[in-house]
Amino acid sequence: MKKSKTVPENKKKWYKTNQICDLFDVSRATLFRWEREGLISGPPRDWRNWRLYTPENVKEIKKFIRARKAVL
Asked: Where are the chain's structural domains?
């Protein structure tokens, strides 16, 4: 079983899953599939085990989507 990353309390900006989905116009299922397939790295999680995306995760997702559009 993978060790989950936990979110430090002192970080400034975190994005919830629904914010990321709205930002990139993708569904939760798509976002989670990309994570499961290793296309994007998994974000840290909070005490409830909910995903909280960092600005670095946002940059990674943006880069992945650009690369995917370039191929299509």
From this structure: 15-71
> Token pair for residue 70?
């370039």
pLDDT at site 31: 97
Measured in residues, the chain has a length of 72
Residues 3 and 7: their CA atoms lie apart, in Å, by 13
Q: DSSP letters along 31-49, please?
A: HHHHHHTTSSPPPPB-TT-
* pLDDT, position 7: 56
As assigned by CATH, the class of the 15-71 domain is mainly alpha
- Say how far apart CA 62 and CA 17 lie, in whole Å: 15
Residue 31: other Cβ atoms inside 10 A: 20
| Residue 27 pLDDT | 97
